[in-house]
From TrEMBL:
It comes from Paractinoplanes ovalisporus. GO terms for molecular function: monooxygenase activity. SUPFAM superfamilies: FAD/NAD(P)-binding domain (SSF51905). Keywords: Monooxygenase, Oxidoreductase. The keyword Ribosomal protein does not apply. Gene3D superfamilies: D-Amino Acid Oxidase, subunit A, domain 2 (3.30.9.10), FAD/NAD(P)-binding domain (3.50.50.60). The lineage of its organism: Bacteria, Bacillati, Actinomycetota, Actinomycetes, Micromonosporales. It comes from the Bacteria. PANTHER family: MONOOXYGENASE (PTHR13789), PUTATIVE (AFU_ORTHOLOGUE AFUA_6G14510)-RELATED (PTHR13789:SF309). Pfam families: FAD_binding_3. The keyword Protein transport does not apply. This is FAD-dependent monooxygenase.
Length: 379
């Protein structure tokens, strides 16, 4: 157990996970969220095996397993042709973002994290202090910037360099009420519908619970109508006529959002006693749905590694040395998949592509690893 104190900026998946992991290791933790309430927006998310193992370490995985859906297969269709379904038996979960966020927020409170909403960070001092917009300076043994891709904490630390890159595609994400005709368990799956001509458009259909379906609708950002929120049913139904009824539902959905694909790669992740985690450190293209999962893994492993060192500085260096290669590979692989749109051709979840999803963090125990066996074909 530790008697150290951490100040965390950002109440997203990475910040909450880091807060829970540190608090469970005996740290006192205060978490600052700039918004007046803790929340994530209303679409869905896939949590891969790497994230589930990390969430086991902090005790949140059983609730995810209870509330999420295990897709029976991942089926890909290009221009109406269906390829061999993949990932049968693979241990990953689909869940709504608000539910995941609620489960993490509850766990953070239960672990004793002091959550301050309406509290905006403007920077960090590497000697160990978080700086707030109201002028407050909060001393800490560790300051965590988990404040997303636009991280103010990261931007205040001149020794952290950042490479940013934008890509050709973007995604509209909406959550729709699950229609009667999709009520059966045979729809608890991921279906990835693509067309590539005259330009790329894709509908990723993911059942996230008994009442909800998450639709990720990808198009090039230059296709203005297909990048609109609310969804423009006419342009999507013209490409995917057989999906017209659910596209209609997507058009009526409230609370959707559009994001262009972009990445940032930060080097190094720490300056003195200040460190960045999650999208603040390594936002990645969502082509493999791994951004939050890698952030969750790194946040849990951060607390685990710090527990092995007396000095925070040494612990941070050891943690980055351990997690960097996996994270860089995940970013590079996601960028490649986004640039080439390789998944459209089906049968894309090769063992190499699955390397990030299969990653086992050091903090995982043999008992929890045994709960998530990987089918031979995906190893
Ligand atoms: C289309 C799309 C699909 C995706 N699908 C998946 C998927 O299926 N699986 C997966 O693992 N990942 C997925 N991702 C990636 C995932 O959404 C992100 O990696 C993840 O949400 C990042 O979490 P975070 O906590 O690092 O940052 P954020 O979610 O950005 O959270 C940052 C938090 O910090 C707060 N904040 C910001 N600035 C300040 C400040 N100055 N002071 C205090 N608080 C502040 C914000 O309000 C927010 O609450 C997807 C991403 C996209 C774009």
């Amino acid at each position: 157990m530790s008697d150290k104190h951490a100040e965390v900026a950002g109440g997203g998946f990475a910040g909450l996970t880091a807060g829970i992991a540190l608090a469970r290791a005996g740290w006192s933790v205060r978490l600052h969220e700039q918004n007046d309430e803790l929340r994530d927006f209303g679409a869905g998310i896939l949590l891969w095996r790497n994230a589930m193992l990390a969430l086991e370490v902090i005790g949140v995985a059983p609730a995810i397993r209870a509330h999420g859906v295990v897709p029976d297969v991942y089926a890909t269709s290009l221009n109406g042709e269906m390829f061999t379904p993949e990932l049968a038996g693979y241990p990953y979960w689909a869940i709504t973002r608000p539910k995941l966020h609620e489960l993490l927020s509850d766990a953070a409170r239960a672990a004793g994290v002091d959550i301050r909403t309406g509290s905006k960070a403007v920077g960090a001092d590497p000697s160990g202090a978080l700086l707030l917009a109201d002028g407050t300076r909060l001393e800490a043994d560790l300051v965590i910037g988990a404040d997303g891709a636009g991280s103010a904490v990261r931007n205040s630390l001149p020794t952290l360099t950042q490479e940013r890159k934008k890509y050709q595609d973007g995604v509209c994400r909406v959550l729709v009420a699950r229609p009667e005709e999709f009520a059966g368990p045979e729809w608890n799956r991921v279906i990835d519908y693509w067309t590539l001509e005259p330009d790329a458009m894709r509908i990723l259909f993911i059942t996230t619970g008994p009442d909800t379906i998450y639709m990720g609708m990808m198009a090039t950002t230059s296709n203005e109508r297909a990048s609109r929120i609310p969804i423009d049913p006419e342009i999507w139904s013209a490409r995917f006529p057989h999906l017209a009824p659910v596209i209609e539902l997507a058009g009526r959905a409230t609370g959707g959002r559009h994001d262009a694909y972009q990445t940032n790669r930060v080097t190094p992740w720490a300056a003195g006693r200040a460190v960045v985690v999650g999208d603040a450190a390594h936002a990645m293209c969502p082509a493999l749905g791994q951004g939050a999962s890698v952030g969750i893994v790194n946040a849990v492993e951060l607390a685990h590694t710090l527990g092995q060192y007396e000095s925070v500085d040494e612990g941070l260096a050891a943690w980055e040395a351990k997690q960097r290669a996996m994270t860089d590979a995940a970013q590079a692989r996601s960028a490649y998949m986004a640039e080439t749109r390789t998944l459209a051709k089906g049968n894309g979840f090769t063992p190499e592509v699955m390397e990030t999803a299969n990653f086992v963090l050091d903090a995982a125990t043999p008992e929890t690893i045994a709960l998530y066996p990987v089918p031979e074909v995906n190893r």
